[in-house]
Amino acid sequence: MLGVISVSSIWGDLIKISIFGESHGKAIGCVIDGLPSGISIDTKLINKDLLRRSAKSYELATPRKEADHFEIISGFFNNKTTGTPLCCMIENTDTRSKDYSPEILRPGHADYTAYVRYKGFQDYRGGGHFSGRITAPLVIAGSICKQVLHSIEPEIKFGSRIISIENINDKKTLNWKDYLKLDLSELKYPFINQELIPKVENRIKEVIKEGDSLGGIVECWITGIKAGIGNPFFDSVESELASLLFSIPAVKGVEFGSGFDLTRMKGSQANDSIRIDNGKIYTQTNNNGGINGGITNGMPIIFRVAIKPTPTIKKEQKTINYKLKENIIHQFRGRHDPCIILRVPVVIESISAIALLNLILKNING
User: Most buried among 205, 253, 261, 352, using CB within 10 Å?
Assistant: First the structure.
């Protein structure tokens, strides 16, 4: 009997992204197909984004410390893209596989669903291919796509911030003009209100003592994008972004513009009044998040992403022994983030860059 064949780790049409590897395997990486040739790539910028994703700057993050040294092994010559598939790889160097069991299923994780889907042949160590560890090659791919985008449309910029962690809230609503100048990428904690940091750190310390974890909301924005990018219905800007955003293991919700708050408005409040000034068309508000009919309107693209708490926690949990088919109560081991959201913003930016490059190349090619 043949095993299961998976093609789930490939995304895109003009830009195709493939990710490979497992959390505790020899290496993880990505292949990017469809990049234009002759584009300069600054590897220092890739390293900068990887550093933002890593836990190195957070004392309260996972004890697992990976170097995340990456190597480009194809599609790159004399510091420029060749136009052939570009492959990047990161070696895993800090694994501890003894903490994981194939029979004891972790609640909230993919242990059970992966077991059923792949007939028990999946790599269960550290979550295997389902692990948030695989977001590292996604950040590499996104960082490269950012640089390709900059060569096509130099005005395009990406930004992100944390809006909330559990019940600790930063300012949610901003004027759309604020996003044009907002840059929190150099901050350890990307909050607008930096006075929240002691409160956040104290809460995370409490949760660590409890053996638990926290989730929250991340906001991302894309500025400098022209009107007319995208398509209606199945190939819309929202569809393209959402399909990648939901590929991030911890993401459980996405909203664009004012999102669910639109449900509490009247049409006269939700509609973005259209104006023109010195030949430039803009909207007074940006409730629709820079997108109408699946197509960009020239305003900042704004969306928010719900991140669930890290599922592997140290509290005892009800689960089963899959092999014995018995109900048990188990305390799981392993090294995991008590608050994964601290590392998510740059992942959201990276995913967005991949989607946007794919959309823009579609428009260029008709």
Answer: 352
Helix (H, G, I), strand (E, B) or coil at 286: coil
Kindly report the number of other CB atoms within 10 A of residue 109's CB atom.
19
Q: What is the DSSP string of 310-337?
A: PS--SS-EEEEETTTTEEEEE-------
Q: What is the three-class DSSP state of 344?
A: coil
Tell me the CATH class for 10-364: alpha beta
Do you know the residue count of the chain?
366
What is the Cα–Cα distance from 246 to 243, expressed in whole angstroms? 6
Name residue, tokens 């490059």: 357
CB 303 within 8 A of CB 241: yes
Contact between 187 and 313 under an 8 Å Cβ cutoff? The reply is no
For residue 84, give Cα distances in angstroms to 33, 117, 358.
7, 33, 16
Of 125, 98, 76, 359, which Cα lies nearest the Cα of 244?
Answer: 359
Give CA–CA dist 163/336, Å, rounded. 22
The pLDDT value recorded for residue 242 is: 97
Locate the DSSP E strands across the chain. Answer: 10-11, 16-21, 27-33, 70-74, 76-77, 80-81, 86-91, 157-165, 168-169, 216-223, 251-256, 274-277, 280-283, 291-292, 295-296, 301-307, 317-321, 326-330
SS3 at position 47: helix
Q: What are the domain boundaries of the chain?
A: 10-364
**Integer Cα distance of 35 and 77 in angstroms:** 13
Beta bridge partners of 160: 220
Does 7 have pLDDT greater than 60?
Answer: no
What is the maximum span of the chain, computed from C-alpha positions, in angstroms? 73
In single-letter form, the type of residue at position 134 comes to I
Structure-block tokens of residue 237: 């800007």
Per-residue confidence (pLDDT) for residue 217, from 0 to 100: 98
Is 279's pLDDT higher than 70?
yes
Question: What is the share, in percent, of the chain residues with pLDDT greater than 90?
Answer: 78
Q: What share of the chain is helix, strand, coil (3-state, %, to 5)?
A: 30, 25, 45
Give the gyration radius of the chain's Cα atoms. 21
